[in-house]
Amino acid sequence: MDGQEEFNVSRRALLAGAAFAGVLGTVLASTPARAQETAPVTGPAPDLSTLPREKLTLVAPPFVHAHDQVAKGGPKVIEVTLTIEEKQMVIDDYGTTINAMTYDGTNPGPMIVVHEGDYVELTLVNPATNSLQHNIDFHAATGALGGGALTLINPGEQAMLRFKATRAGVFVYHCAPGGPMIPWHVVSGMNGAILVLPREGLNDGHGNPLSYDRVYYVGEQDFYIPRDENGEFKSYEAAGDGYDDMVQVMRTLTPTHVVFNGAVGALTGDNALTAKVGERVLILHSQANRDTRPHLIGGHGDYVWNTGKFRNPPEVDLETWHVAGGSAAAALYTFLQPGLYAYVNHNLIEAVELGATAHFKVEGEWNDDLMTQVQAPSPLA
Ligand SMILES: [Cu+2]
């Protein structure tokens, strides 16, 4: 299939999806009122020209751009630009590469932070230096395949999407250019997340506000790298060259790598996440394709929104939480002991053999009351 045919196929798939979404919309519109009770109240659209505008400067994960936890004033129009970058990325210590597809050059793409009721005005840029068609599907958005149907752009094009952030939570965004292109782009790294905070900030589900001193974004990624006849990982000149081989690996549903933030070791050693004893750390964890189960070894989740949606009360005191594929979770923890903590996907094979491990380096005073070594390892008495 040549490039143009591929574009046509994906456009057809997309149009079919849009038609389906239209049917679905009709069905949903006729559901009883009761089903609507929990839906967000949107009300009449305000005159957008009267709303203040704010331009975000995004930063590379695991960091998150500066933001207010409690919104100041009313809704705003938040301007964001994401630039699609196709690039070769090294994903492990052996120099294995992938022809990655990224938003802003990183896997995951940058975290975008807004407040419930804000309008997100996203400019998506596909530079002429890229070779493929891309778009963006925001799970936080309503309609048109999450915006995917309105943002499908060829190299050398850009599009602008505006959607209202009506639901508070942390939501995945990802590329979805139609048909078999969708999983290929997602497992080539093309996903990220948006944090839609309640205007009044987070709370514990009993009306008590919760805040954080630090926030980190961990994007988990499953990669499916083809091997040659000797079992060595293959590399390809261009993304399209590896498509057929990668699909074969994808269909086994067995990733060759499961990593945090784009590569084995991206968040360990010198790149370890840092905190101090007593600090409240919010960990946002996305997985755009596959279920996972984060666990902080030697710590807990004080408050965890497993589903990442803030109108649900958080669960407390968790040991491990579940992130459904295609979603993101939020976990708040106050570190109580210093030391090096491993933060893992607690499928320990994926953590240790495939790469899904991060480190938190925590400074502070040790608390003997919480734990002490009563006897160091010594010969049997
Ligand atoms: Cu894409």
Automatic annotation (TrEMBL):
Tagged with keyword Electron transport: no
Keywords of the record: Copper, FAD, Flavoprotein, Metal-binding, Nitrate assimilation, Oxidoreductase, Periplasm, Repeat, Signal
Associated pathway: Nitrogen metabolism; nitrate reduction (denitrification); dinitrogen from nitrate: step 2/4
Protein location: Periplasm
Residues noted as binding Cu cation in the record, renumbered to the chain: H134, H139, H174, C175, H185, M190, H346
Annotated cofactor note: Binds 1 Cu(+) ion.
Enzyme class: oxidoreductase
Molecular function GO labels: copper ion binding; nitrite reductase (NO-forming) activity
Cellular component, GO, one term: periplasmic space
Occurrences of domain Plastocyanin-like (ranges): 93-200, 216-366
Cofactor(s) annotated in UniProt: Cu(2+); FAD; Cu(+)
Catalytic reactions on record: nitric oxide + Fe(III)-[cytochrome c] + H2O = Fe(II)-[cytochrome c] + nitrite + 2 H(+)
Coiled coil ranges: none
Signal sequence extent: 1-35
Subunit composition and interactions: Homotrimer.
Family affiliation: Belongs to the multicopper oxidase family.
Protein name, UniProt field: Copper-containing nitrite reductase
Gene label: nirK
